[in-house]
């Protein structure tokens, strides 16, 4: 089946329903560049200026991202903010932008956190998190593993340039994880009985607290813990629509020096 903007947006709303989104979130169709047939889609974590230019040069009619192009309401389209400049560029170049944020985190099987579970071998995972926002996952490894060995697996599997870790002296067996910025999920991980908490970023003060609570922490990078879901997004779209070429863009502007 050929994809149009309207048809793809409707399909993704069905497969990644808004009901999964946190109430503070803003996602879905950010900019509509028309309703023609989609032949080429750019998949990226962030809709940066470089990503938009790359999409235009590649002939992509649509960008699908994890992080919303427009997160806070725009007061104007004067081009005085990064978001407004990006929206203007997308509109003037006829590029549709769709973003799927916390609902993609929470999604079963194809979501950010289930994808992480699959990569890291976390089995029988169930949702966990703060009240009303249980979009993380907690599950177990088939066999316990020493913390240092597990860190090597994480670094290699996610392509992280380096990890920030807290070694609480515990074997890794029961893991709570959430891709991206997981600082609000540390205490729920402790309450759920996890021996290890894995996220993209947590923060120095919480890491110090974690040592006191006796839970291992692994910060594997915001980008590295979320980017793997883009391949699952391609698979999800391809299950319904044929004839689409997919292009990936690495929007990570951070590096370890």
Task: Provide a descriptive summary of the structure in words.
- This protein is an alpha/beta fold.
- The protein has 2 domains: 3-104, Udp-n-acetylmuramoylalanyl-d-glutamate--2,6- Diaminopimelate Ligase, Chain: A, domain 1; 107-225, Udp-n-acetylmuramoylalanyl-d-glutamate--2,6- Diaminopimelate Ligase, Chain: A, domain 1, CATH 3.40.1390.
- 35% of the residues lie in helices and 25% in strands.
- The protein contains 10 helices and 13 strands.
- The protein has helices spanning 5-15, 49-58, 82-92, 102-106, 112-120, 147-158, 186-191, 204-213, 222-226, 229-238; strands at residues 3-4, 28-31, 37-38, 40-44, 62-65, 96-99, 123-128, 136-145, 164-166, 172-181, 196-201, 216-219, 245-249.
- It has a 6-stranded mixed beta sheet with strand order 7-8-10-11-12-9, with helices on both faces. The chain has a 5-stranded mixed beta sheet with strand order 2-6-5-4-13, sandwiched between helices. Strands 1-3 form a two-stranded antiparallel ribbon.
- The longest helix is centred in the middle third of the chain and has 12 residues, at 147-158.
- The termini are far apart.
- The model has no long low-confidence stretch (mean pLDDT 95).
Blueprint of the fold:
Blueprint: E1 3-4, H1 5-15, E2 28-31, E3 37-38, E4 40-44, H2 49-58, E5 62-65, H3 82-92, E6 96-99, H4 102-106, H5 112-120, E7 123-128, E8 136-145, H6 147-158, E9 164-166, E10 172-181, H7 186-191, E11 196-201, H8 204-213, E12 216-219, H9 222-226, H10 229-238, E13 245-249
Parallel strand pairs: 4-5, 4-13, 5-6, 10-11, 11-12
Antiparallel strand pairs: 1-3, 2-6, 7-8, 8-10, 9-12
């Amino acid at each position: 089946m050929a994809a149009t903007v309207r048809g793809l947006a409707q399909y993704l709303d069905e497969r990644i329903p808004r009901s999964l989104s946190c109430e503070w979130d803003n996602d879905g169709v950010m900019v509509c560049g028309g309703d023609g047939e989609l032949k080429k889609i750019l998949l990226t974590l962030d809709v940066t200026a470089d990503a938009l230019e790359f999409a235009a040069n590649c002939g992509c009619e649509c960008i699908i991202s994890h992080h919303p192009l427009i997160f806070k309401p725009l007061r104007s389209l004067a081009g005085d903010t990064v978001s407004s400049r990006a929206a203007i560029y997308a509109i003037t170049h006829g590029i549709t932008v769709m973003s799927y944020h916390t609902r993609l985190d929470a999604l079963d099987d194809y979501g950010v956190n289930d994808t992480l579970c699959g990569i890291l071998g976390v089995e029988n995972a169930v949702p966990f998190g703060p009240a009303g926002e249980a979009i993380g996952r907690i599950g177990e490894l088939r066999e316990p593993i020493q913390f240092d060995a597990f860190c090597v697996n994480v670094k290699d599997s996610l392509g992280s340039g380096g990890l920030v870790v807290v070694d609480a002296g515990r074997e890794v067996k029961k893991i709570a994880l959430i891709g991206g910025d997981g600082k609000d999920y540390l205490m729920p991980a402790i309450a759920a009985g996890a021996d290890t908490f894995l996220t993209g970023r947590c923060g120095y003060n919480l890491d110090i607290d974690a040592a006191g609570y006796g839970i291992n922490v692994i910060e594997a990078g915001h980008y590295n813990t979320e980017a793997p879901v883009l391949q699952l997004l391609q698979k999800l779209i391809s299950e319904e629509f044929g004839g689409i070429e997919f292009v990936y863009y690495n929007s990570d502007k951070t590096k370890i020096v």
